[in-house]
């Protein structure tokens, strides 16, 4: 709002606060999407997104505001945005018939992992499984940090390999374990096994986050790319 006094251009504001011209209220985050009431200059429409999380509500509001400013009718914008399914591997909900919510996300940094787990905490009602590893030949300082985040923000962390590259996978996992000396975390060097263990152990209502590789359809071991898809 303060910006308006410094420009002659028409200004549209958006956000979660009710004083924004375009705002979202009564946000309800679920394992399969997000619902909220969209207010456009006081005109309220209930919106059901296929995307999950408050950050996606902000993204949707930004997209809506840009389209609205371009003169596209409000109902047309909403119908289009409700069809958006998101990008593969970016907090992607994977279909499951067991009652377990499975999320695949490219969270391969401490900040990314924390954001993903905090989003899950917004809708999780039972256990949160977090299958996570760290890449080889990359920043070693993030390994204990990511391990600590997984332990503190999930109830069932599992450590595994990411892209070990030319490093010994066992040494990478040891660096992670060193970050949580008082935690008893299952460790599986084989990523296939780690994911399978989480899926098999999870009960209806639980959430399984498979973090780190997202859209990648390969795993780099040594200098060779092997086909691997977290989906």
Automatic annotation (TrEMBL):
<dbReference type="InterPro" id="IPR036565">
    <property type="entry name" value="Mur-like_cat_sf"/>
</dbReference>
<dbReference type="GO" id="GO:0005737">
    <property type="term" value="C:cytoplasm"/>
</dbReference>
<keyword id="KW-0132">Cell division</keyword>
<dbReference type="GO" id="GO:0008360">
    <property type="term" value="P:regulation of cell shape"/>
</dbReference>
<keyword id="KW-0573">Peptidoglycan synthesis</keyword>
<keyword id="KW-0131">Cell cycle</keyword>
<dbReference type="Pfam" id="PF08245">
    <property type="entry name" value="Mur_ligase_M"/>
</dbReference>
<dbReference type="InterPro" id="IPR036615">
    <property type="entry name" value="Mur_ligase_C_dom_sf"/>
</dbReference>
<dbReference type="GO" id="GO:0009252">
    <property type="term" value="P:peptidoglycan biosynthetic process"/>
</dbReference>
<keyword id="KW-0133">Cell shape</keyword>
<dbReference type="Pfam" id="PF02875">
    <property type="entry name" value="Mur_ligase_C"/>
</dbReference>
<dbReference type="InterPro" id="IPR004101">
    <property type="entry name" value="Mur_ligase_C"/>
</dbReference>
<dbReference type="GO" id="GO:0016881">
    <property type="term" value="F:acid-amino acid ligase activity"/>
</dbReference>
<dbReference type="InterPro" id="IPR013221">
    <property type="entry name" value="Mur_ligase_cen"/>
</dbReference>
<comment type="similarity">
    <text>Belongs to the MurCDEF family. MurE subfamily.</text>
</comment>
<dbReference type="GO" id="GO:0051301">
    <property type="term" value="P:cell division"/>
</dbReference>
<comment type="pathway">
    <text>Cell wall biogenesis; peptidoglycan biosynthesis.</text>
</comment>
<keyword id="KW-0436">Ligase</keyword>
<dbReference type="GO" id="GO:0005524">
    <property type="term" value="F:ATP binding"/>
</dbReference>
<dbReference type="InterPro" id="IPR005761">
    <property type="entry name" value="UDP-N-AcMur-Glu-dNH2Pim_ligase"/>
</dbReference>
<dbReference type="GO" id="GO:0071555">
    <property type="term" value="P:cell wall organization"/>
</dbReference>
<feature type="domain" description="Mur ligase central">
    <location>
        <begin position="8"/>
        <end position="67"/>
    </location>
</feature>
<protein>
    <submittedName>
        <fullName>UDP-N-acetylmuramoyl-L-alanyl-D-glutamate--2, 6-diaminopimelate ligase</fullName>
    </submittedName>
</protein>
<keyword id="KW-0961">Cell wall biogenesis/degradation</keyword>
<feature type="domain" description="Mur ligase C-terminal">
    <location>
        <begin position="89"/>
        <end position="214"/>
    </location>
</feature>
């Amino acid at each position: 709002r303060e910006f308006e006094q410094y420009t002659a251009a028409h200004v549209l504001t958006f956000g979660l606060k009710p004083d924004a011209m375009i705002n979202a209220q009564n946000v309800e985050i679920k394992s399969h999407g997000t619902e909220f009431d969209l207010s456009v200059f006081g005109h309220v429409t209930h919106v059901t997104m296929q995307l999950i999380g408050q950050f996606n509500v902000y993204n949707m509001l930004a997209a809506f505001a840009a389209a609205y400013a371009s003169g596209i009718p409000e109902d047309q914008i909403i119908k289009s945005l409700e069809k958006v399914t998101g990008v593969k591997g970016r907090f992607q909900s994977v279909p499951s018939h067991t009652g377990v919510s499975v999320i695949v996300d490219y969270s391969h940094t401490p900040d990314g992992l924390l954001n993903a787990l905090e989003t899950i905490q917004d809708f999780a009602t039972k256990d949160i499984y977090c299958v996570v590893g760290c890449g080889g030949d990359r920043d070693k300082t993030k390994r204990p940090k990511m391990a600590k985040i997984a332990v503190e923000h999930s109830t069932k962390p599992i450590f595994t390999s990411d892209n070990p590259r030319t490093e010994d996978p066992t040494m990478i996992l040891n660096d992670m374990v060193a970050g949580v000396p008082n935690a008893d975390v299952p460790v599986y060097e084989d990523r296939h096994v780690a994911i399978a263990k989480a899926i098999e152990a999870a009960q209806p209502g639980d959430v399984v986050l498979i973090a780190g590789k997202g859209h990648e359809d390969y795993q780099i071991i040594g200098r060779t790319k092997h086909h691997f898809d977290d989906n």
